[in-house]
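Changelog note: in this version the structure field was regenerated for every chain. One regenerated record is shown below for reference.
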Amino acid sequence: MPKEGSNFTLDVDLVVVAIGTGANPIITGTVPNLELTKWGYIVADEATGKTSREGVYAGGDIVTGSATVILAMGAGRNSSKAIHEYLMSKK
């Protein structure tokens, strides 16, 4: 049932679309030296999200294939720590 007042507009600078169940061919087809599985998903370390490219991290459906949003959120959380550590090591 529609809920009054639930529709609104939100001004944003960037929107990341995170829907679908397959690997995005734009990413996997345009990033050289990015190791992929035989199904076209990005190979990434489960604990950190680190890929075969230095400074590139991945998680969610692009790594696991279709899965739950909870798993994708967990991958993002794990990767954020690894990304922070990576960036701090470059200072």
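Spot check on this record: The CA atoms of residues 54 and 86 lie 9 Å apart. Residues 69-89 form the longest helix (21 residues).
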